[in-house]
Amino acid sequence: MANRVLACLRKFFNWCVDRDKIQVTPIERLKAPGVEKSRDRVLDDAELLILIHAFEQMAYPFGHAMQLMLLTGQRRNEVAKMRWEQIDFEKAVWILPRTVTKSDRAHEVPLSPQAITLLLSIPRQAEYVFTTRLGRPISGFSKAKAQCDQLCTKIVQEEKIGREVGQWRLHDLRRTFRTSMPRLKIPRDIAESILNHSGRSRSSVESVYDGYAYQDDKRHAFEVWAQFLDTLSGEVTDKVVSLAAHRQSK
C-alpha cells in the first residue's frame, strides 16, 4: 500500500512540474518503502468448485460480479465499472474503451452463453451493471470477500467436501484463469489477448493488431473455460445430491 501511495504522489508531483506549478518534485529521490513481491497464487480445481458455489449463494451485486470476474478473467475494477452501454447482447461481446482499461487500449471480450445468462438475470437499475442504491459502481470488495470466505467454510462443513479454500485474493481469479489456458489447449497469444496484456515482448504494430484480432479464437477460449467451470460446478452438485440421497436412505 505504501508503494502504491508513493506511485500516486510521484505522478501528481510530476504533473505539477510539467505545468510549472513547482520547480522540482519533493520526492524525486525517495525510494519505495517496501519490497515488491510478485504473487503466484493459483486456485486448484477443488478450491475453484467451492468458490463457484459460494459466488452463487452471494446476493447481487457482489456475487454476480465475482461470477463474471471468474468467467471472463478480467480485472476487478473493469468488472466493477462495467456499463450496460458497453455490452452488445446481439453479438455477445463486452466492449471496453481504452479510457477504462489498465493497458490504455480498447478491448473486446467475447461473452460465453453462461456470461450472457448471468448478465440477463441482473435488473437494469442504473448505467452501471453492478451498482449500489445510489447508482454508483460497486466498491468495498473487502467485506464481500469476507462474506465469501464464510460461505466457503460453511459449504465445506455442510457438504463434508474435505477440503478448504486457502488464503486467496480476488486477483487470483484472473491468474487462475490465465494459468488454466494451456491445459485447455488455448494458445498463449490468445490467452494474452483475452487478458489485454500490454505485450511488451511484441512490437507496437502487433500489440495494436492483437487488440482486434482472434475474435473467434477468443470466443472459443471463453466457451471452453465456461464449460470447464460448469463441469466443476457439477461435481459439487453431484456430491450434494449423493449426500442427500444417502441421508434419506437412513
Quote the beta fraction: under 5%
Number of helices: 10
Q: List the helices and strands in order.
A: HHHHEEEHHHHHH
How would you classify the quaternary structure? Answer: single chain
Distance between termini? Answer: 54 Å
Query: Major sheet, described briefly?
Result: 3 strands, antiparallel
Would you tell me the structural class of the helices and strands?
mainly alpha
Coarse shape: globular
Low-pLDDT ranges: 200-205, 236-250
Strand element count: 3
Helix content: 40-55%
Q: What's the pLDDT, averaged over the residues? A: 85
Question: What integer value in Å does the Rg equal?
Answer: 21 Å
Tell me the strand order in the biggest sheet.
1-2-3
Describe the model.
The protein has 250 residues and is mainly alpha-helical. The chain has helices at residues 2-18, 45-57, 62-72, 76-80, 113-120, 141-159, 171-180, 188-194, 204-210, 215-249, and strands at residues 87-88, 93-96, 107-110. The chain has a 3-stranded antiparallel sheet. Helix 2 packs across helix 6, helix 2 crosses helix 10 and helix 3 (62-72) packs antiparallel against helix 5 (113-120). It starts with a helix and ends with a helix.
Write a concise synopsis of the structure shown.
The chain has 250 residues and is mainly alpha-helical. The protein is 53% helix and 4% strand.
Give the helix/strand layout.
Elements: H1 2-18, H2 45-57, H3 62-72, H4 76-80, E1 87-88, E2 93-96, E3 107-110, H5 113-120, H6 141-159, H7 171-180, H8 188-194, H9 204-210, H10 215-249
Antiparallel strand pairs: 1-2, 2-3
Helix pairs in contact: 2-3, 2-6, 2-10, 3-5
